[in-house]
C-alpha cells in the first residue's frame, strides 16, 4: 500500500528514467511503503541500498537488538518498481532474466516479489521497514550497463543530483531519532548504489549523528575486497565486532527469504548457509561467530 498522494504518483516518463522521481522538474522525497512506525522511537536505523543488503550484512545484529527490545528500522533506498515505461538496457534485461530463474515473475512483478521477500526477511529479524521511492542503478539510463560500470566510478550526475537528495532523505528520517545509531554500507565491492549511501553516511557522521558502517556481504568475503575498500576511504576507520552466535540461525533464515537472489549470489540455499557461517567465523577469528562494524575516528 503506497502512502504517496495522487499528485506525487503522476510521474512523467522522463522522470521514470531518473534515480528519484520529479514533479515539474523538482525532486521530491517520498516513502513508497512503510510498516507502522508513526509513534515508534528507533534505537537503530539501517540504510539498505537494495532489498536484502541489511539481512545479508547485519542480520545477526538486527535480530539480537530486536530480541533485546531495541526497535530497529531498515530503510531500503532502491524500492521503486520500474514500470514498462522505464527502458531496459540489455544488461538490465539480463539481470531480470536471472531473477526469473528462481521466481515466477514477469516485468515489474519481479520487484513486487522482492518486496514480499523483504517483508518476510525483516519480519524474521523483528525489524520494521521504510521503502524509499528510488530506482536501482540498472534502470538509471544507459551508463550502468555492465558489471564493470555497476561496480565502478559514480557518474558525476549521481554525485551532483542524487547524493544531495539521498542525504536529505536520510537526515529527515533520522531527525526524530537523534539518539539512534545509523548504519550505512561500507561499500565493499564498490556497487554504485552502495557508494552513494556510504558517502551520505559520512556526511551525516560529520553532522554529529552516531554512524557505523557495515561490511557489504557477500562482497566482503571475497579475497582482499575489504582491505581494498578500507584503503579507498579517506577517513580513518576503527572496527568493532558484534557476537552473533545466538542469532546466526535467524540471519540465515532471513536471507533464505530472498529466493530470487540465492542462486545469483550463492548458487543456492545450501551454499548460502555455508558462506554465511564461514564468513561469520572468519570475522570472529575462529572464536565464535561475529559481524564487524566500522566507525570514523
Shape: globular
User: For the record, what is the CATH homologous superfamily label?
Assistant: LmbE-like
What name does CATH use for the topology?
A: Rossmann fold
Integer tally of domains: 1
Termini separation comes to: 41 Å
Helix fraction bin: 40-55%
Q: Give the C-level CATH assignment.
A: Alpha Beta
H/I helix tally = 11
Describe this structure in words.
The protein has 11 helices and 10 strands. It has 297 residues and is α/β, with parallel strands linked by helices. It has a single domain, classed as LmbE-like (Rossmann fold, 3-Layer(aba) Sandwich). The strands form 2 sheets. An 8-stranded mixed beta sheet has the order 3-6-5-4-7-8-10-9, sandwiched between helices. Strand 1 (22-23) and strand 2 form a beta hairpin. The relative contact order is 0.16. The model is unreliable at 1-32 (pLDDT under 50).
Note the topology.
Blueprint: H1 13-16, E1 22-23, E2 26-27, E3 31-34, E4 44-48, H2 53-67, E5 72-76, H3 90-100, H4 109-125, E6 128-132, H5 147-150, H6 156-174, E7 181-185, H7 192-206, E8 210-214, H8 225-232, E9 237-243, H9 248-256, H10 259-265, H11 269-283, E10 290-296
Parallel strand pairs: 4-5, 4-7, 5-6, 7-8
Antiparallel strand pairs: 1-2, 3-6, 8-10, 9-10
Helix pairs in contact: 2-4, 2-9, 4-9, 6-7, 9-11
